[in-house]
Amino acid sequence: MTELTVAVSRRRLTLATAAQIGGRVIGAVLGVVVAATLARSLTRGEFGELSLALSITTLAGTLGDLGMRQVAVREMSRAPERRAAIAGALLTAQFVLGVVLAVIGVAIAFALMSGHQARLMAVFVMATMPVGAVGALAVSYQARLRPELVLVPTLIQNVVWLGIVLVLAATNAGLVLYGVGALAAAILQSAITAGLALRLTEVSFVRIGGLIGELLRLAWPIGLAGVFVTAYYRIDGVLLFHYRGAVANAYYSAAYRVIDVLQIFPATIGSVLLPLLASAEREPGGEARARRVFELAIILLVAIAVPVAVLGGILAPGVVALVYGHAYHRSVLLLQILLPSFIFISVSYVLIGQLVLRGMLRPYIVAAFLGAVLNVVVNLIGIPTGGAVVAAWATVGTEAIVMAAIAVVVHRRLGYTLPYTRILRCLVATALTAVVVWLVRHQPLALGLLVAAVVYPPVVLGVRAITIGELRSLLSRDAAARA
């Protein structure tokens, strides 16, 4: 077996991170094409039913994870000699939970859906949960600072799923075949993930019972908080389907899909920073570097999220028309309402990561629980009369409140403060760019995107919200070698 720790050069880590970001962007583009094809090939009712099945899968998937993957990455980084056993314990636990939750998901889908095509489709979609348990092996990539490897099975799955959707759309296939296609793509992704992971890290199933218990003991607070977060992140779609029907859920799901795609940015940065922050804890004087990485991560994400929210709101009509077609014009307002939530989601990624690394999970759980309660109550009261608009505003408000609460905790417990001055500079850069984009808002979407891409980068660098030197310092050779 190769050595348990791998010295990673600055060049390779930089290229790996660039490849990961590029791969995620490609995956996001493929996801948008899939969403566009589904919206145009299925009726709005069928699209709403498929979206509901995927939402239930996401809810159940959070329960199936229970925070164990985050804990596994942390423990693999801290104790490389236990990586094989951790991988085996994680895989076993995820598979068992996946089977149980797939059954529960089917029961929920049957209760909400009435047509036999929709119900059978849901059965195949729910079956992706136990199959997807193999994806737990991807934690070995992150622990050894090879996050780019996560993209190989994901991109292949995206390409295959897109191909399946295009074929089904061209043949006017029934809804149930879309569920079959989703399962087939998931099986392929899991097979590739397993093949790559076994080349990098051994998997041991010897005496893993105690280790499974240890992972659950360490992870359940994260998992509980994750359940609450997913509840206020996804339950609105379920409630909307129940109270207002499949078509209303289709409009809302179309707008929400954009927010899902955008999360590639905080997810990518977080997957790179978690091992670096964990390794910094192991060494003397690592606190100062961890603080710098924390502040840089915040400003990186803000520099991405703020212009996306503001400029995306201006260009939303063109985005919706391009992706979903004019039949989904009602999704424009919903997207404009939802986009600011991306800012709060992005910042929360880094804040929550700090609490997870320090083991300060109780305040995170409390904040997530209160956010879930607030969100569900608002949706239960507002959706029957206000529909998707209420659900969208509830999402933005919940994300803002939860992020603010966690930011207060991080400041009081760790002394970390958000870089407000530099955040203000990002706002200024975005405002200047927005003026130019506003002038071309009625022109073709491509022109608006081009203007934003050309104007914003030099402006944000010009106001010194972030510097090129800081981007380079994030991926230092020493930090990579210690991971």
Structural class: mainly alpha
- Low-confidence sequence ranges: 1-9, 476-483
**Could you give the order of the helices and strands?**
HHHHHHHHHHHHHHHHHHHHH
- Report the C-alpha radius of gyration, rounded: 22 Å
Taking the alpha carbons of the first and last residues, their distance comes to 18 Å
Total strand segments: 0
Biggest sheet record: none
Mean pLDDT score? 81
Number of helices: 21
Query: In percent, how helical is the residue content?
Result: over 70%
Give keywords.
483 residues; mainly alpha; 21 helices; globular; disordered N terminus; disordered C terminus
Please sum up the structure shown:
The protein is mainly alpha-helical. The protein has helices spanning 10-41, 44-65, 68-78, 83-112, 116-126, 128-132, 139-143, 151-170, 175-200, 209-244, 246-262, 264-281, 286-323, 331-338, 341-358, 362-386, 388-414, 420-439, 445-462, 468-474, 477-482.
Question: How would you sum up this structure, described in words?
Answer:
- The N terminus and C terminus are likely disordered.
- This protein starts with 9 loop residues before the first helix and ends with a helix.
- Helix 13 runs antiparallel to helix 19.
- The chain has 21 helices and no strands.
- The chain has 483 residues and is mainly alpha-helical.
- The chain is globular and about 65 Å long.
- The relative contact order is 0.12.
